Amino acid sequence: MSRGYLATRWDRLNAPPRILGVDLARSLAVLGMFAAHLLWIRGPVELAEPASWLAVVQGRSSILFAVLAGVSIGLVTGGRVPLAGDAAATARLRLVVRAFVLWLLGILLILTGVPVFVILPAYALLFLVAVPLTRLTAPTLLVLAAGLALVMPFVQVALDALPLWSMIGGHELALAIGWHYPFTTWIAFVAAGMGAARAGVTRRHVQWWLLGAGGALAALAYGLHAASGADEQSEAMSYLGAVWTARPHSSGLLEAVGSGGFALAVLGASLLVCRTVVRWAVLPLRAVGAMPLTAYTLQLVVWAIIASVVLGDSGDLSGFRDLEPFWPLTLGTVVFCTAWALLVGRGPLEAAVDRVARLTVRDAPARAAAPRR
């Protein structure tokens, strides 16, 4: 293997156009979902109780994943300046193809019987809903994200109460569209990520803005939740109680604002950290973030295989958690992704999805220059 080949792999992971802080944030989202899936986590976060801090991964990891989906969409559709013309049409059609492939992969993962709410079907729908938003600028996207976060939780309560979900086939429909991560509200997180990409996530002042504004939103929403004494009982008793909550996966108003802000703060912090020498210390984490689809899928496939062989049932959540699989799966994923990134390059599933999108939607032929008259 030539040194030139290894050098190109190194550059792919560490040099522009790769944005190191985005990769770091993605790794935190993926590994946070590992923790939410594989560890026994009891009770909410209590600042005075360090033992409870691990509960921060509940709900927030998947919302961070959604915000970063928005960042990726924003970057592939032009970054600070939205693409126009044939280039924009090609990028949008490829997003549609990627959405279809992600949905199929999500359904296959659901069929493994692993007892988690697979995020990929929701991810796919979010890609589709985001396609019309790719024309928008940063200010418009950020205002839209704020409006959706403030309005949609009021609608979401009614949507969750529809009799559709308790009818025959309702549960299967919910799984197929990822309703545990409802696109109707979660599009706010994607729009926020797209707005960050349009604002320029590589710009230092934008990174500080993400950290400061995101942290302020999180502190405000979580503070209001704590001050109001909101709990699951109050959620069940009234419509406003169901809206006024920051409980993970509630899609309540305070969760949308608080966890959305938390995700923006994590993104900003990750971008700032990767401006320092710490970026080399977190290289293995960045490798995971460079192939999040591969890491997420690999975890669930390995889980299904081990649980089926050892427990005889891939759906035995308690039995699998009791095997204490978090550290072996997490460390194994980090080692695999780091080795793959440095020796092979792009993640296998990322490369496959991109290949399908490019084969399905070809680049528009370059237009010949008009002859001079």
UniProtKB/TrEMBL annotation:
Keywords: Membrane, Transmembrane, Transmembrane helix. Coiled coil: none annotated. The chain crosses the membrane at residues 61-83, 95-111, 141-159, 179-201, 208-227, 256-278, 290-311, 326-345. This is DUF1624 domain-containing protein. PANTHER family: HYPOTHETICAL MEMBRANE SPANNING PROTEIN (PTHR30590:SF3), INNER MEMBRANE PROTEIN (PTHR30590). It holds the Pfam family HGSNAT_cat. Residues 18-210 form the Heparan-alpha-glucosaminide N-acetyltransferase catalytic domain. InterPro entries: Bact_Transport_Assoc, HGSNAT_cat.
